[in-house]
Amino acid sequence: MTVVNVWGSLSPVARSAFPAPPEPHDEWPLTGGTAWVYYSPLNRRQLVRPVILADGFSLGASDLGELWAGLEENGRYRFVSELHAAGRDVIVLGYDDRTASIMDNADTAIECIRRAISERAGNARLAVGGFSMGGMVTRYALAKMQRDRNLPDPETAIYLSYDTPHRGAWLPISMQAFAHFLKDNWGANHPIFGQFSDLINSSAARQMARWHIGKIGDEVDQAAERITFLKQLEAVGGWPKGMRKIGVANGVATGAGNGIDPAQTATSGRGELMEATLRTQALGDQVVATLHKADESPLEVHVDGLPDIDGAPGGLFPENPMLPGNPGSFGMAAMLMGLLGSETDLQVNSSCFIPTVSAVAAGDISDRDTLYSPIISGDSELDAFACASNNEGHTTMTEELGAWLVNEITSHT
pLDDT tens-digit profile of 285-298? Predict the structure, then answer.
């Protein structure tokens, strides 16, 4: 169970329901979202030491039950309970649309921060951050509050991020091409075959992905929306100032990869309607996908100049616990092939999603040597960071990372 389920409602079979979360002590309707407030038992139903935790990227609106399950019922570490035991009040921030522009959801985060300041008893400074894209949303929100004279000071002591794509996220180009192939050929009559492509082409995905294609045949590069976002982030200073910046990565800092070999067949399918082969990313010129609809010429998707990033150290694209076989990135492709009647062969279920160097803002993920080199404290733009002992699922809550964050929050707020 991860805090952020990137697949969201992209589930072609019935989903199991998450257990009902405890009733929030307060609920704040926000423009573009909702904040669910859980006071620490030590604070007698008052907001005394607020910690704001923002949701990440996925389809549809934020789901409190899903978030609570990842934070508290993950079987490894009860993050909210530990913050409560330390006298911190937890505000879980969700959005009406998790695929919306980072800047739009940042306005929701700003409204949440302002509400927390106004509701707070006393003058304790806040801790503000988020999981995955939520870390980018709050990073931009805090920096904008400091730069925009029409906005109040965020009164925040700590900015925190949890496996956040500070230097960009990775979704295999073979996967992106396959998603668009499905939509082009079967999306009109079967919406499930269009949702994958829509997710990849959403505003937030275009802003986060280091390499993106909007359709088959596009040049593999940053989307125009990402370039615009990075310029706007730089315009507000890049990072919030005057507060401690901390972050964790679900990947290792040693430079050790996750064991996925480059240029291997990740998944393939063959049936009456289609044949498809998706390969992991390698260095140099490569055919990463071969896509063949019956009675049409096969399409080959070529990529050149990218690192062998599927196997890089970092948070793995999360598996979907709501679906049989817990499919990851390539696993979801195999499942969709199966829905089209193809016999499938899945060799690689998931892949690197947030390289460690991206999560701790320590280097350029387009540089192969940087991806696979050990990270030391001086490499990062964060004031402090922690990395997992193993490359694990993106936004997996563990005692190793959760306890480190709790210690940082309680030591500096």
Answer: 999 999 999 989 99
Distance CA 121, CA 118 (A): 8
Burial class (CB in 10 A: 0-12, 13-18, 19+), 41: exposed
- Cα(411)–Cα(413) distance, rounded to whole angstroms? 6
* Among 386, 322, 382, 391, CA closest to 354: 391
Amino acid identity, position 400:
E
Distance between CA atoms of residues 22 and 2, nearest Å: 19
Of the candidate ranges 168-172, 217-221, 320-324, 365-369, the one whose mean pLDDT is the lowest: 320-324
Maximum C-alpha span of the chain: 70
Retrieve residue 261's tokens. Answer: 């070999």
CA angle 315–316–322, rounded 5-degree value: 125
44, burial (CB in 10 Å: exposed 0-12, middle 13-18, buried 19+): exposed
Gap between the Cα atoms of 405 and 362, Å rounded: 19
Question: Which of 318, 333, 399, 250 lies closest to 4 in space, CA to CA?
Answer: 318
More confident residue, 44 or 154: 154
Lowest mean pLDDT among 6-10, 70-74, 131-135, 248-252: 6-10
What interhelical angle do 133-147 and 102-119 show, nearest 10? 70
Q: Which residues pair with 127 in a beta bridge?
A: 51, 158
Contact 52, 379 (CB under 8 A): no
Of 100, 101, 118, nearest to 154 by C-alpha is 118
- Secondary structure class of 393 (helix, strand, coil): strand
At 312, is the secondary structure helix, strand, or coil?
Answer: coil
Amino acid at 271: G
Tell me how far apart the alpha carbons of residues 183 and 188 are, in angstroms, rounded to a whole number: 7
pLDDT of amino acid 7: 74
Q: What is the mean pLDDT of the chain?
A: 95
pTM over 0.90: yes
CA distance 316 to 198: 21
How far is residue 91's CA from residue 80's CA, in Å, rounded to a whole number?
Answer: 10
Distance CA 291, CA 288 (A): 10
CA–CA distance, 302 with 296 (Å, rounded to integer): 19
Q: Is the dihedral of CA 87, 88, 89, 92 positive or negative?
A: negative
Is the pLDDT at 388 greater than 70? The verdict is yes
Asked if the model's pLDDT at residue 191 lies above 50, the reply is: yes
